[in-house]
Description:
The complex is a heterodimer of chains A (305) and B (502). By secondary structure, chain A is an all-alpha fold. In chain A, α8 crosses α9, α8 packs parallel to α12 and α9 packs across α11. Chain A has 15 helices and no strands. In chain B, strands 1, 8, 9, 10, 11, 12, 13, 14, 15, 16 and 17 form an eleven-stranded mixed beta sheet that branches. Chain B has a four-stranded antiparallel beta sheet with strand order 4-5-7-6, with helices on one face. In chain B, strands 2-3 form a two-stranded antiparallel sheet. At the A-B interface, α2, α3, α5, α8 and α12 of A face α6 and α12 of B.
Amino acid sequence: MPQYILKRLLGTLGVMFVIAILAFFFVHMLPGDPVRMLAGEDATLQEMEIIRQKLGLDLPLHQQFYIFLVNLLQLDFGNSLISGDPVYDVLADRYVLTAKLTLVCLWFIPAGIVLGVIAATHKSKFLDRACMIFSVSGISVPEFWLGLILIQIFAVKLQWFNPTGFQSWADLTLPAITIGMMGTAIIARFTRSAFLDVLSENYIQTARAKGVKRFNVTYVHALRNAMLPIITVIGLQIGFILSGSIVAEAIFGLPGLGSLLIESVVARDYPVVQTLLILYSFHFVMINFIVDVLYTVINPQVRLK
Amino acid sequence: MNLMKSLVLSTALVAGIAGQAMAETNVVIAIESSVRTLNPHNASITLDMSVAGAAYEGLFKFNTKMEIQPNLATGYEVSEDGKTYTITLNKGIKFHDGTDFNAEAVKYNFEHEIKHKLRRASLLTNVKEFNVLADDKLEVVLKEPSNNFINSITHPSQGMISPAALEKYGEDIQSNPVGTGRFVFDKWTRGSSVAFTANENYWRGPVKVDGIEFRTVAEAGSQLAMLQSGQAQFISTVAPAMKKVIDASPKAENVRVPTIIGRWYSLNTQNEIFSDVRVRKALNYAFNKEAFAKVVYNGDAAPMTSPIPSDLETYAEQESYKYDLEKAKALLAEAGYADGFKAVLWSKNSTLSLRSAEFMQQQLEALNIELEIIPRDTASHYAAGDTLKDDPTRPVIFDAGWSSSTGTADWALRPIYQTGAGSNYALYSNPELDKLIAEGQITLDPARKQEVYGQIQEIAWNDAPVIYTTVDYRTVGKSKALKGVDFLPDGSISVGDVELVK
């Protein structure tokens, strides 16, 4: 087991390195000029040249790449072209906020699983239909619509929450509902189908025939086996939420990673965009890694292969 | 028992009233994008200068009609040759950190800007030297005579920063503003908010609120919710559909402000088709500006009636290109394009820009002109515009616009119409106009200045290197209780004598 984990971690490093290189070239190949965005629409060509030299953007691309690589190996991601601050500082506060938001959004996991299990165990009955209607709506409702409706009801009419901003954890309630809705819906659907598959297996029939209690059959025998595909989807969802929600951040005035990405792309702030791409990939690589490890915990067969 | 009860009650009541009187009055202003820097001298976005403007004051300021008003300065005198400006300052003003504000401090500010090549030093390129004549008198000697030097230093970027703070913070002054303004910097949460508290020693007298905060909320619907729920007292973005909601609210109101942001579509005059003035005029006649303002801008725009917006100095109304399809067709036929032609329209990709582009496409269809729209995001759009001159024969129509941030006719016309100028996306060149533009810059006699700029506007208008469309109006929302915060025609939010009236 430790050997397996070590091997996977080393592989991860290689993947991250390739991603970093791709991120650099992808970002620098975008059309558009950060200097123009920085200098403003009414800047003269001379002013732009001064800024270009200051930022080192006048160097040939291979030299910029060399500098990027050397810095990267020292885990230095450079300075933002816009604010001049180290990318670390630009990211830090926003990352913390996105992480907090992700944390409160995790309600989607139990909610989705419970809904899915209820639907599966009441297949084709009223509760199943109700859960699936909720789930389909959850997937179809656009985030910006749901967010604005929640604000209008709970912040403007009832005045329970602040419409925007983040001063206390309570302020994250509406964003968490908005963002978590999609995850809940997806997990519910996956859980239902995974569960139905498992429930029709012979060993479940055997367990029932043996006289194991219905609750135990459902939550011990069936759930464990149905978990494998569900965990994968949960991992992906967490990865998406950790990337920051562009829409929810715009609606609720939360300065997370999503709005930073948009701002940086619009301004062609190369170092920040690069670092965000690397960070996002890192999330997914790590989540995949954790999911794989969890696989081996849940299903020993995976370990043997 | 009863006595006890009423005692407790009245104590609570008194405490309650006292609590209310002590309650902080904070004004929250919702803005649509994040602040990038709080050093106005180095800002390229008007919004950044507006936010920094809570802490900073310039020597002069614009009022809501873009007229110059004294601020930290009391007035100025110009020498007869237009090369020496003598500015008189208010006495006894101190920066937030206790440093004295005087002529030496002003000199330090301007020289610091120039020395460090800060972005807005471009407004000071004509300056030869600054001489301190007295504590409250600064002499500015220019290289060339100028009739608009005061405009340049009235620009919202030219706030006065404490020299001691500039020394102390260096580049970090951008996140530690220290000025003379009504508000003292408190906290900047990147991407989210900038908060200020009242300046207790403000030189004009007590500040009427406890603090002011600028909060970034990109979504217009959320800004509306902030205004409705009382979380914000001023919102910078009001979407057309939201106006009715605000009108219906007893506590809030819409404020519709004319701007000096002009919009047009540049026609590449180096291209064979667009080099013919008859074609360019035909396109202007074929474009229904009134319908455009109504359909695309929901009424938040007015037709352009001159190459410069009507709120700018020397504005002279021109004979309008009244929508006249027959005249347009006749002009095109005369030029040999009765059957139309093909062209590309380079547009920005915001919703508004795309709607404008589609409107243009439909209008020109009537002339059998086939327009292909190529949308790009802002960065790519201007980068593409900068490459136009490398291959100048393409039939390109370029989505463009301009706001003269110094409020001068010179800065509204020179960058657009002068041969080879930075934003001359029509690649337009007219030696006669170039000569007038150069003359306009150094003409001191007001009557002659008016005449020169009148001629420039007339020539540009009749030569029509662009399809003139509209001047923006902007609607902002505010609480009826809020006084002293204004949206100015140059697109800035001016924080003045802020007050929340009960």
